[in-house]
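Researcher: We plan to redesign the surface later, but first we want a full-length starting point. Tokens attached.
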């Protein structure tokens, strides 16, 4: 008895077509033709209405979202499907949930299932049992047999370092299980340039920006069905630079299992996220020194540490972050000694501050610490310069070498590109010369290719000429001596106007790993952790309320306070300038500045009657009273014969009136002013 009834033929036949991957779509066309051929079989069996569902081509049947399968189930539930055609059970589903849902719906509405082996009615117990076994076997093949066998075979080959699913730009596959460096010198120089600039700039983003600014293209491996693998040159994207710097193949290592897939359930469907990076310790296979590398493995590890330290957006409190804009130098290096969190940087006006707000954000409590950055930056910079001073001349010599390498690297890439373009133009010309001129169908196309190659050559020649025009003049002997002098005096180079904050930050990061800072009372206590593992302790006094970097020192304030009782503002300004005591901003004193300073600190203005009110006289007045010269009176004060005091060098001598009266009441004997008994006195008429 046939299982196809008039009821089935009165409804439509649905042909479900699926291939799991894009690779199968590209290389397995015969399977797809067989599946599309099921539409003809449906018509042979008597169906006049046949609908083909091929929305799921390139989608796995292992449980992920499939629009075509969802449309098929919806049509079955609506009662529009008389038969479902599939080449085998695995085309319909590779997991038990989808398969048994399909069988259940087909049994409810009386839809039959047709494959190459036969017809099955889910309402019949025997057919339903057979369909269940087919689904179980299909799922078993996917989850256990085929997948396990293929994965183990891949891992076994990877453990020998012989599995190459793809070859990175800069290498070529030799045979089936070996790679070697690409002999193209332009490819090698471009990749080495990426690693060299990263060592200099310490940032993937900065390398990417520099390459784009200089117009330097990088090699990219391209795969096409017609030509296979080829190298194309493109201006780099950020991911291109990042992949080059993080790929261990360029360090001469073979790695397998660097990424993994993560399965999650969303809206009742399996969702697979592929390409998630795994830590180096979790890689399945890592074989070092397998082939010639562009960098050493130790340099690769240092690069990965720098990249990890720059990743501040991943929520890790252990990273330092990349060098960013801003005048404060210790951003990313400071760690709070109270709570262990990194310190933030804030700018209010021209000056910036370091502060820890981890406790405020996480617990709603007050900030741990906060302090101004200028004095701390100056102290740390001075300590680093003290340690690095012996290496200053060496650094200056390397700077002389780097002065020309900045443009030579870009020019080298352009020269290689121009050389390759000229070769392509010469090759196009040889092709054009080899063709019969009368065959215009071929000659016209070859002429067009030759013209395009020449245009590329002319464009590169223009770029080379522009680069030569922008090339800075080489350093003269005077400039070279000046640079070496700066190397010998690092403090002068550090404070030089041409030294940017970014340069100072890179110097500090090259020397320091981290700085742990605490505030205890009125002291900022810092522990400098050097890159080599040593530690240095520093202490700074915190600024008091109202103190800032333009504050006049306490000794100058005290001096002005006392001088204001002895002389007017004009004389105070002259005395301070002679004593070498500048204002808070490093300027000289004037009468107006002294007046403003007094008013700010509440110091009263000088009055002429002050001396008399305090019972004091000047040295000149004392000399006049004693009827001696000023120099004689000065010698008497210095020898202690007459009591007097002087605030500082250049300030007036102050003599108390009572001290002067006590001296006059004394009747000292006329004795020689020297200790020589033979000294004679001259009597003048």
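Model: Full-length starting sequence:
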């Amino acid at each position: 008895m046939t299982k196809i009834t008039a009821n089935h033929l009165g409804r439509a036949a649905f042909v479900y077509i699926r291939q799991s991957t894009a690779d199968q779509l590209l290389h397995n066309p015969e399977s797809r033709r067989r599946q599309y051929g099921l539409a003809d079989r449906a018509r042979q069996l008597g169906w006049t209405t046949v609908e083909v569902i091929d929305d799921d081509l390139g989608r796995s049947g292992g449980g992920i979202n499939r629009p075509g399968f969802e449309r098929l189930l919806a049509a079955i539930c609506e009662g529009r499907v008389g038969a479902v055609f599939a080449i085998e059970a695995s085309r319909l589903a590779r997991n038990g949930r989808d398969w048994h849902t399909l069988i259940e719906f087909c049994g409810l509405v009386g839809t039959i299932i047709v494959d190459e082996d036969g017809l099955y009615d889910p309402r019949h117990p025997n057919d339903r049992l057979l369909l269940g076994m087919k689904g179980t076997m299909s799922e078993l093949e996917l989850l256990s047999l085929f997948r396990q066998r293929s994965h183990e075979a891949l891992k076994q080959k990877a453990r020998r370092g012989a599995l190459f699913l793809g070859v990175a730009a800069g290498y070529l596959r030799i045979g089936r299980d070996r790679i070697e460096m690409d002999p193209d010198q332009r490819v090698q120089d471009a990749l080495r340039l990426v690693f060299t600039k990263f060592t200099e700039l310490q940032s993937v983003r900065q390398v990417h920006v520099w390459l784009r600014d200089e117009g330097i293209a990088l090699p990219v491996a391209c795969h096409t069905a017609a030509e296979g693998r080829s190298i194309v040159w493109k201006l780099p994207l950020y991911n291109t630079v990042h992949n080059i710097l993080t790929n261990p193949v360029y360090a001469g290592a073979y790695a397998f299992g660097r990424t993994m897939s993560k399965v999650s359930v969303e809206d009742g469907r399996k969702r697979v996220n592929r390409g998630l990076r795994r830590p180096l310790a979790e890689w399945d296979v890592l074989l070092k020194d397998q082939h010639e590398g562009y960098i050493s493995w130790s340099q690769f590890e240092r690069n990965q540490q720098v990249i990890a330290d720059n990743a501040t957006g991943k929520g890790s409190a252990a990273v330092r972050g990349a060098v960013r804009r801003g005048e404060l130098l210790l951003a990313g290096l400071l760690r709070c000694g109270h709570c262990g969190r990194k310190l933030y940087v804030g700018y209010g006006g021209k000056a910036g501050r370091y502060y820890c707000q981890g406790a405020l954000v996480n617990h709603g409590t007050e900030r741990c610490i906060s302090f101004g950055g200028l004095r701390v930056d100056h102290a740390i910079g001075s300590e680093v310069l003290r340690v690095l001073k012996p290496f200053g001349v060496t650094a200056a010599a390397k700077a002389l070498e780097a002065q020309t390498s900045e443009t030579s690297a870009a020019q080298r890439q352009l020269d290689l590109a121009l050389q390759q373009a000229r070769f392509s133009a010469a090759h196009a010309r040889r092709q054009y010369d080899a063709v019969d001129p009368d065959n215009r169908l071929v000659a016209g196309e070859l002429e067009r290719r030759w013209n395009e190659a020449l245009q590329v050559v002319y464009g590169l020649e223009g770029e080379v000429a522009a680069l030569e025009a922008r090339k800075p003049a080489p350093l003269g002997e005077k400039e070279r001596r000046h640079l070496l002098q700066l190397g010998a005096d690092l403090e002068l180079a550090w404070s030089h106007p041409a030294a940017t904050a970014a340069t100072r930050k890179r110097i500090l990061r090259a020397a320091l790993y981290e700085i742990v800072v605490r505030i205890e009372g009125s002291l900022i206590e810092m522990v400098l952790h050097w890159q080599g593992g040593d530690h240095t302790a520093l202490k700074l006094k915190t600024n008091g309320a109202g103190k800032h970097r333009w504050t006049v020192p306490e000794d100058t304030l005290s001096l002005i306070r006392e001088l204001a009782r002895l002389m007017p503002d004009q004389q105070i300004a002259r005395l301070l300038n002679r004593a070498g005591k500048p204002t808070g901003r490093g300027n000289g004193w004037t009468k107006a500045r002294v007046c403003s300073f007094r008013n700010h600190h509440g110091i009263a203005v000088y009055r002429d009657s002050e001396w008399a009110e305090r019972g004091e006289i000047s040295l000149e007045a004392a000399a006049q009273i004693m009827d001696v010269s000023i120099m004689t009176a000065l010698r008497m004060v210095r020898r202690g014969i007459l009591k007097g005091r002087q605030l500082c060098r250049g300030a007036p001598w102050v003599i108390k009136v009572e001290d002067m009266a006590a001296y006059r009441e004394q009747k000292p004997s006329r004795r020689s002013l020297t200790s020589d008994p033979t000294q004679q006195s001259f009597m003048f008429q």
